[in-house]
Structures are given as C-alpha cells and as structure tokens.
Design a protein that fits this description.
single chain; 90 residues; mainly alpha; 6 helices
Length: 90
C-alpha cells in the first residue's frame, strides 16, 4: 500500500480503517472431525480452547502490526506465554 499511496497516506488509511476478523464453526468442523489425528489427540473442549488461543494471538499480532504501522506503539500488548495459554485478549 505504501508503494501505491505513499507511506503517510497508507498510515492514514490503516489508522482509520475498520477491520473485521472472523472465526467460525467451520474452523472446528473441517479440522477436528475430518482429521483423525486431531480428534484422537484432543477432546472437543481442548481443541476449542486451542482455536480460541490461536485466534487471540492472531488478533494481538494484527493489532500490534496495525498500531506499529500507524506510528502508535503500544506496550500493553506484551503478554507472557502464560497469558496466551489462558486465551487472554490484551
């Protein structure tokens, strides 16, 4: 985007953008029930917790990258691995 619009304009676009992130039942069904390795290794609750944790990390990284690009570094995003395993969001 910076190559097309320039760095300052790209930062403004990202800063003012609305982001929609989604995770749904297909993430669970298409992986847990179709893949016998996963369904034998984890209970449905364990796999659900894993997916929530993975999505939580994705949201944090996405937020961190967009905040960094717009020039506003946030140190509140630094969490320990223990926080991630609990599914804590910020």
């Amino acid at each position: 985007m910076a190559k097309v619009a320039g760095s300052k304009k790209a930062a403004l676009i990202i800063k003012d953008a609305l982001y929609i992130l989604s995770a749904g039942s297909s993430d669970f069904v298409q992986n847990y029930y179709v893949n016998p390795i996963i369904s034998k290794a984890l209970t449905p609750d364990q796999y659900s917790a894993y997916l929530v944790g993975a999505f939580s990390i994705f949201v944090k990284v996405f937020y961190f990258v967009t905040v960094t690009v717009s020039g506003k570094m946030s140190h509140n995003l630094i969490k320990t691995e223990k926080d991630y395993s609990k599914g804590a969001l910020f």
